[in-house]
Amino acid sequence: MTTRHPTPPTTDDDWWRSAVVYQVYVRSFADSNGDGVGDLRGIRHHLPYLRDLGVDALWLTPFYTSPMVDGGYDVADYRDVDPMFGTLADFDRMITDAHALGLRIIVDLVPNHTSDAHPWFQAALAAAPGSPERDRYLFADGQGPDGGLPPNDWESIFGGPAWTRVPDGQWYLHLFDPTQPDLNWRHPEVREEFLDILRFWLDRGVDGFRIDVAHGMIKAEGLPDVGFNSMTTGRRQSELLGKGRLPYFDQDEVHDVYRAWRPVLDSYPGGRMAVAEAWAETPQRLARYIGPDELHQAFSFDFLDATWSADSFRKVIDTALTESTIVGAPTTWVLSNHDKQRHVTRYGDGPQGLRRARAASLLMLALPGSAYLYQGEELGLPEVLDLPDELRQDPAFLRTGESRDGCRVPIPWDGELAPYGFGPPGGAPSWLPAPATWQALSVAAQTGVPGSTLELYRTALRIRHDHPALATDAGEVVWLDTDPGVLAFRRVAGPAALTCVVNLSGAPVTIDGYGTAVAASAELTPAGTGHVLPVDAAAWFDEHRPTGGLTVGSPG
Ligand code: NOJ
């Protein structure tokens, strides 16, 4: 039996349109029991930190029962919590507290594949070829005289063939690790099961879902070859992600799935939403996942992928805003997540990377729509590049040599010794070690320090929440004329206006007087009626506020 939990904190059904959502990578956020792995009680304990930071919602990465081969994206039981992370009762207490603090909770749903430990897959292995048990997955006969070659040339996103052979000679499809068999979404039982899983978590009070591999569930009929792969031509099929068409992604029929989900979400009070992790050939095709009869949002990864230049950012912002106007849903901005190198490091690492990351954050938080923050970006954490290979756990590492572990290192909270308050004193070492340099980046080390990255985020989130021109997704982006290499735009709501200026030109620039500086990623120098904006810096100007809580200083 499930218990209907209190509905979310306010009745504003459109909360997600301009929300700041904080991604919690559960096993790396906070460890309450000293086993070296983050858990739900750890999150609950730190909810006041997140409320004070100023975010609106949390997205929790999978915490369900899982062998944890792919960090929990290999689910064995969609309706339970893995003991490593706690219990369903811990989840209920956590969501109750979150709602009491005004924070909403989004959970991760993994519908493209299960774990091979899922009872359905175990039943499929035990059953014969052609059986109903096998039909819930994508089993096929191989090619060649004895069926010894995979059914087609599809390649796993984690490298190597997307097919694995079972002892009776059939093959099954796994677009990711072999322990993550793809489900057959043309099977009615699969569709029913996920409608039920949605209801299970909605009944527990969740405010939304992040849909993993939302573009993947339907595969082209007949499973046609792509025509190349890294085994035959040395070119990986995954290069086409977000740029081209693949027969296993973004098939038109996948939209039927979301059209069946939306009425379920809409039948609950409080604005329950879903955000797609989807990759499509063009922004236009990505926009097809969004709308009143499908999903509410899709991440705009083009923004994350933009290079450090005014032209590159301007182009992706304009395209995303145009698409969002067409589909009537605001853009969903993101700079970092648990799959991508942290943006401090992408932008050059060291002092330059941090300067740029701080500026990019002010840019993102001034745009209309919602913004997804990845835990630790508010601390300016870089990617950890020197993890010893034997500690790396990303299944892709063994197959491709590429690893996502460096952005998954546990959060430094306080203290002088690793793991810097991630776990209780005397607990086990954290599952990935934090570098010694992170002592100075901990929450405690940055709290109350003017100019620290944490205080910059707190200031920016407070202004975004309070300023009429930022608090809604409705305000247009009005681009202003500037020097080359400088982006400046104004958000306007009635008499209130906020201008965001970003210097990507490679040299300090003198900018016009746009009003009172209320947030800046680096120290501004007054110049005439305006300011000098340092290299790789951004600032926000309020035209009406006579004095402002200016956050300045060197990146800390
Ligand atoms: C996307 C998730 O973000 C990633 O971490 C995971 O490995 C794949 N989907 C497969 O579920």
What is the general shape?
globular
The strand line-up of the biggest sheet is 1-2-5-9-10-11-12-13
What's the number of structural domains?
A: 2
Helix content: 10-25%
Explain the overall architecture:
With 556 residues, this protein is α/β, with parallel strands linked by helices. Helix content is 24%, strand content 16%. The protein is built from 14 helices and 21 strands. It has helices at 40-45, 47-53, 88-100, 119-126, 188-203, 254-266, 283-287, 301-305, 310-327, 343-346, 350-366, 395-400, 443-446, 453-466, and strands at residues 20-24, 57-60, 64-65, 77-81, 104-109, 139-140, 163-165, 171-173, 208-211, 273-276, 297-300, 332-334, 370-374, 477-479, 486-493, 496-503, 509-511, 516-520, 525-527, 530-533, 538-542. The radius of gyration is 24 Å and the shape is globular. It starts with 19 loop residues before the first strand and ends in a 14-residue tail after the last strand. The protein binds 1-deoxynojirimycin. Residues 70, 73, 110, 176, 212-213, 277, 338-339 line the site of 1-deoxynojirimycin.
Features:
single chain; 556 residues; alpha/beta; TIM Barrel; Oligo-1,6-glucosidase, domain 2; 8-stranded parallel beta barrel; 5-stranded antiparallel β-sheet; 14 helices; globular; disordered N terminus; binds 1-deoxynojirimycin
